[in-house]
Amino acid sequence: MRTPYYLCEEELLEKNLKTLDYVQKQSGAKIILALKGFAMWSTFPLVAKYLKGCTASGLHEATLANEEFKKHNKDAEVHTYSPAFGDDDIKEVAKISDHIVFNSPAQLFKYIYVIKDTNPQASISLRINPEISSSPKDIYNPCGIYSRLGTTFENFDEKVLEYIDGLNFHALCEQNVDALEEVLEKFETDFSQYFKNLKYINFGGGQHITKKDYDVEKLIKIIIKFRKKYDVDVYLEPGEAVGWECGYLVSSVLDIVHNGMDIAILDTSAEAHMPDTLAMPYRAEVRGADEAGKKTHTYRLAGNTCLAGDIMGDYSFDKPLKIGDKIIFEDQIHYTFVKNTTFNGIKLPSLVILRKNGRREIIKFFKYEDYKQRLS
Ligand SMILES: *Cc1c(COP(=O)(O)O)cnc(C)c1O
Questions:
Q1: What are phi and psi of 300, to 5 degrees?
Q2: Is a pLDDT exceeding 90 seen at residue 226?
Q3: Which of 181, 211, 243 is the last residue of a domain?
Q4: Residue of 32, 36, 57, 236 to mutate, ligand 1, most atoms within 8 A of C-beta
Q5: Residue 307, Cα to own-chain centre: how many angstroms?
Q6: Burial, 343: exposed, middle or buried (Cβ in 10 Å; 0-12, 13-18, 19+)?
Q7: I need a surface site. Which of 35, 112, 283, 286 has the fewest CB within 10 A?
Q8: Same-domain check for residues 270 and 153
Q9: The domain boundary residue, chosen from 192, 220, 243
Q10: Residue 135 pLDDT exceeds 80
Q11: How far does the centroid of ligand 1 lie from the alpha carbon of residue 315, in Å?
């Protein structure tokens, strides 16, 4: 198969979905997919069997949820949140969303009548910033200093209560249940006085539910307790936990150069295809490799763009690398192809699904036209 390509293993994806479904069944919470982290819609026939809908961050994701998720689950809900909606999109968003989540009271008051006119059934919510910051990385901390995401206690306006059915928060990133517990405590202290007429609370994403060490039973207990205490529905909206460890990115070594060390140039790119490598920064695991110096042969793995910093990291191997060798980056299904760019005209990796019956299916092969049509 031509490299580079992302391969999603259907069986592993379903394993994640079953874990999430277990949480739904035991706790009574509804779990929806955050498209921002995982939007491989060819898997939606499977995903929609388990999850109750999608959370979208604007018109395009909401449209995708409406077109590709709802057709496999007619009861699926589309929740749309945006840090700020604009006049151009709000009507269309209202038309196709079951829940609309505003970031500020000002946005809510500005657009509430557009929504009442366009889709009076739509449920309205406000995103809260619980102002408890525990995310390990600033770039992924929605409650960091000067955060624009969500309404703080100080900026909350009780007049919104006339319009809303729920409140949202999203405060976590790759975290275990203890972090949720901490956020909930603060959120309840500040906002439970407003829960009386609410139908739901959305706990957001960032909960690493499908990771091996995640305390699923404790999460279930917390949700059950919360639902009983306030008589509300609870939503969770993970992205990463859906696509967690269910596939990889395969690339080939195109050349090996030497400049103070051995450098392998791959047919993929950290900048364009594994952006968290540089943004977080984050080091992907490479199959069969170890940290630099641990095994006999160390290489810098680098991308095939002209950006000097397009580097995945330094890795060591048992045997010397050869041109044509495959390099497999593990766990590359969430927050990768949803962020890809055609920077430098580099080819986008194909999207492949390994079906449960063992067949590998290329679901998308990108061409020159995909690069060209984004420019003019
Ligand atoms: C990104 C995001 C999510 C999903 O977060 P994960 O870390 O992928 O689970 C959920 N809700 C909102 C509002 C988000 O911005």
A1: -85, 125
A2: yes
A3: 243
A4: 36
A5: 26
A6: middle
A7: 283
A8: no
A9: 243
A10: no
A11: 31
**Cβ–ligand 1 contact at 243 (below 6 Å):** no
pTM of the model: 0.97
Domain carrying residue 14? 10-243
Ligand 1 centroid–CA 206 distance in Å is 6
Tokens of 369: 């036209």
- pLDDT of 279: 87
Higher pLDDT, 135 or 317: 317
pLDDT (0 to 100) of residue 234: 98
Quick one: how far is CA 192 from the chain centroid?
28
Q: Taking Cα atoms as reference points, which of 32, 156, 143 lies closest to residue 97?
A: 32
* Structure-token pair, residue 22: 């277990």
Instruction: Check if the beta carbon of residue 207 is closer than 8 Å to that of residue 180.
Output: yes
For the Cβ of 237 lying below 6 angstroms from any atom of ligand 1, the answer is yes
- pLDDT, residue 223, reads 98
| C-alpha to C-alpha distance for 77 and 66, rounded to whole angstroms | 9
C-alpha of residue 316 to centroid of ligand 1, in Å: 34
Verify that 365 and 353 share a domain, yes or no. yes
Q: Is the CB of 241 under 6 A from ligand 1?
A: yes
Instruction: For residue 2, tell me if it sits in a domain.
Output: no
Are both 212 and 349 inside the same structural domain?
A: no
C-alpha 77 to ligand 1 mean position (Å): 16
Asked if residues 272 and 344 have their Cβ atoms less than 8 Å apart, the reply is yes
**Is the model's pLDDT at 147 over the cut of 90?**
yes
Verify that 317 and 210 share a domain, yes or no: no
- How many whole angstroms from 173 Cα to the centroid of ligand 1? 8
Q: What is the mean pLDDT of residues 87-113?
A: 98
